[in-house]
Design a protein that fits this description.
about 40% helix
């Protein structure tokens, strides 16, 4: 199979920060922007996944969210107490945060402007799905289609993660390479919800690459706070008119399937695809199903 053109990492200034991004495919093809989730770098959209998507005739753009990878770190904002924020949110109190999902959505709009992209197919995973939903709510004229993967509306009545997934979520990544590699394997053993040898064979390479690009534990806390402080999108999603696809694994331990079902039910006309046995991960065996679904939707 021919390898699609892949650019080197580059940077754009937007919304008061700098975003690191790269692209796959022909810039003249219909654009797809990939938005990754909490604590995840853009390379969590695996090079092979992006290449396969570009081979379907798309210009694929992925980027590091603020406070992740090589994009701007907002260290001056400090490290928030996420547990206290969660408690305050459950008590109905207003949460102050350095930034919200709306700001992260504005980052995407700035990236699109820098790349001269008027409208794009927007695909988000996990927190990236929440950012993609926010884009559809707040910038409806900039979306061709919306695809929300293993994400949620943020409604308070939805089921919580499993205890194992919650532990993974709140366990900081070790700062040393050996500790990080061990923690990475343990984390994805939980989130994948099963054994995936193709992924496990590549975990060491993936983890080393993430570590080399730079960890940002305080940034993870700020991203968590952004999600908590942004609240529920459920009511606002009723006004979304972008053709919407919701993909969700029925074995997801972090964002249970009910969250994906709720997302699909909240957006008028949304299509729901349930991936049997998929956890909270874009595991290699599911790439064909995911890419087929996106390609059928993003027309």
């Amino acid at each position: 199979m021919p390898i699609e053109p892949h650019t080197a990492e580059a940077y754009v200034k937007t919304n008061g920060i700098e975003l690191c991004y790269d692209t796959f495919g022909d810039a003249k093809s219909p654009p797809i922007l990939l938005i990754m989730g909490l604590a995840a770098q853009m390379i969590a959209w695996d090079d092979g996944f992006c290449d396969l998507l570009a081979a379907r005739g798309y210009y694929v753009v992925r980027f590091d969210n603020r406070d992740a990878g090589r994009s701007t770190r907002l260290d001056a904002a400090g490290t928030p107490n996420v547990a206290a924020a969660l408690l305050a949110s459950m008590q109905g109190q207003k949460i102050d945060a350095p930034y919200l999902l709306s700001d992260m959505a504005d980052d995407v709009i700035g990236l699109m402007g820098a790349l001269d992209i008027a409208k794009a197919h927007i695909v988000g995973a996990s927190m990236g799905g929440a950012i993609a939903q926010t884009l559809a709510i707040e910038h409806p004229d900039r979306l061709r289609t919306l695809t929300s993967i293993m994400s949620t509306t943020g409604a308070a009545n939805l089921p919580a993660p499993t205890p194992e997934a919650m532990k993974v979520l709140f366990t900081p990544a070790p700062p040393d390479l050996a500790g990080y590699l061990e923690n990475y394997a343990r984390t994805w053993n939980v989130l994948r919800a099963g054994s995936f040898p193709l992924d496990e064979a590549r975990d060491l390479e993936r983890a080393r690459r993430i570590f080399e690009r730079g960890l940002n534990p305080s940034g993870v806390a700020r991203q968590m706070l952004a999600m908590i402080a942004s609240g529920s999108r459920k009511k606002a999603l009723a006004a979304v008119r972008a053709p919407t696809l919701v993909l969700h694994g029925d074995a997801d331990p972090l964002v249970p399937l009910a969250c994906g079902i709720d997302t699909a039910e909240s957006v008028p006309g949304a299509k729901l695809v349930i991936l049997k046995g998929m956890g909270h991960a874009l595991s290699i065996p599911y790439w064909p199903q995911i890419i087929d679904a996106i390609a059928a939707h993003a027309v």
